[in-house]
C-alpha cells in the first residue's frame, strides 16, 4: 500500500487523549432496506441479507487509514453495531469506535428520542455486547429528549463513564445552549450535528467546539444540493483539481476547522476510496472564498 492511497496523517486528539485521523467512516449507509444493494428508499432498518460486502467496506476503510468508525444502536436495530464487530473485532489499538444511544425505532419510518436514564443505561449495555468491548470509546446521545432534563440524560452517561463503560461522551444535533448545559454536567468530547457546505446552521456550535477543543462530526457531510450543479463553484473547483464535487465538499469541511471530523459513509469501496481521497486535496484561499468561506 503506497502512502498516496492512504489517508494523510492529519490527527485530532478526540477527548484530548485519542488520536484519530480526521476523516472517519459512518456506518449508516451499510444498512439496506431493499435487499438489492441499491439503497433505494433505505430506511436504516435492516442489515443487508448478505453482510459480506459491508464487511469488506469496513475492512477496506481501516486498511486505508481510517481510525474513527461511527455507528448507532438505532441503525438497523443494532445490526449495524453487529456488522462493525463482525468486520473489525478484535479492534486494532489505534481504532476508535463511536456509537449512539437514545433513539427508539418503533417502525421503519420512525425515529423517536428516548432519554430516560434507565433506558440509556440499558442501551449502553447492549451496545457493549454487540460491539464486543468492555468500554465504548465515544458514546453519543443520539438526540436529547425534551421529556427529561438534560442533566439527567447526560448524568446517566456520566455515571457509566465513572463505571468505566464509556471513555468519552458526545452529543448529537444540539444547540449551543444545550451543549453548554451538558458541559455543566460532564466533559463533552464530541458533537455530531447536521453540517455541510450547503447547510451551515450550526456555525455557533462549531465555533464553540473549535475554541474548546471538542470534536465536531458533521453528519450528511456530502449533501451539496444545487451548489454542485453544472457551472457551480464546486463543479468548477472540482474540474480545476481533477476531483469529484463530493471530494471538494469534504475538503472544504476539513479546511473549515481543525476539529472537524467528517464521517462520510457508503456501501461502495469505490466511493469509499474517492471520499478518503478528499483528505489530500488542498484548496487555495481563492477557492475557499468562492465556496463562501
From TrEMBL:
Keyword entries, A-Z: Oxidoreductase
Top-rank taxon: Bacteria
Pfam families, alphabetized: Aldo_ket_red (PF00248)
Domain NADP-dependent oxidoreductase: 24-289
Protein name (record): Aldo/keto reductase
Species this chain originates from: Microbacterium helvum
Lineage: Bacteria, Bacillati, Actinomycetota, Actinomycetes, Micrococcales
Amino acid at each position: 500500500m503506497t502512502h498516496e492511497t492512504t489517508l494523510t496523517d492529519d490527527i485530532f486528539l478526540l477527548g484530548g487523549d485519542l488520536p484519530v485521523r480526521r476523516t472517519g467512516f459512518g456506518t449508516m449507509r451499510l444498512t439496506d432496506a431493499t435487499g438489492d444493494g441499491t439503497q433505494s428508499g433505505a430506511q436504516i432498518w435492516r442489515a443487508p441479507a448478505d453482510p459480506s460486502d459491508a464487511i469488506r467496506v469496513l475492512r477496506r476503510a481501516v486498511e486505508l487509514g481510517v481510525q474513527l468508525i461511527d455507528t448507532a444502536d438505532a441503525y438497523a436495530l443494532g445490526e449495524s453495531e453487529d456488522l462493525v464487530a463482525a468486520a473489525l473485532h478484535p479492534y486494532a489499538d489505534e481504532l476508535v469506535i463511536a456509537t449512539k444511544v437514545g433513539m427508539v425505532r418503533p417502525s421503519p419510518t420512525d425515529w423517536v428520542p428516548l432519554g430516560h436514564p434507565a433506558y440509556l443505561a440499558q442501551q449502553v449495555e447492549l451496545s457493549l455486547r454487540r460491539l464486543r468491548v468492555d468500554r465504548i470509546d465515544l458514546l453519543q446521545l443520539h438526540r436529547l429528549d425534551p421529556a427529561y432534563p438534560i442533566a439527567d440524560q447526560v448524568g446517566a452517561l456520566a455515571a457509566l463513564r465513572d463505571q468505566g463503560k464509556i471513555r468519552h461522551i458526545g452529543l448529537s444535533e444540539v444547540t449551543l445552549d444545550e451543549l453548554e448545559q451538558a458541559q455543566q454536567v460532564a466533559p463533552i468530547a464530541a458533537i455530531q450535528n447536521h453540517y455541510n457546505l450547503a447547510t451551515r446552521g450550526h456555525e455557533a456550535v462549531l465555533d464553540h467546539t473549535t475554541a474548546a477543543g471538542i470534536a465536531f462530526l458533521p453528519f450528511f457531510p456530502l449533501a451539496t444540493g444545487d451548489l454542485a450543479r453544472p457551472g457551480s463553484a464546486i463543479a468548477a473547483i472540482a474540474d480545476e483539481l481533477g476531483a469529484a464535487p463530493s471530494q471538494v465538499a469534504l475538503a472544504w469541511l476539513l479546511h473549515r476547522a481543525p476539529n472537524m471530523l467528517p464521517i462520510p459513509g457508503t456501501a461502495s469501496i469505490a466511493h469509499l476510496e474517492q471520499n478518503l481521497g478528499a483528505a489530500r486535496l488542498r484548496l487555495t484561499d481563492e477557492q475557499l472564498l468562492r465556496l463562501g468561506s
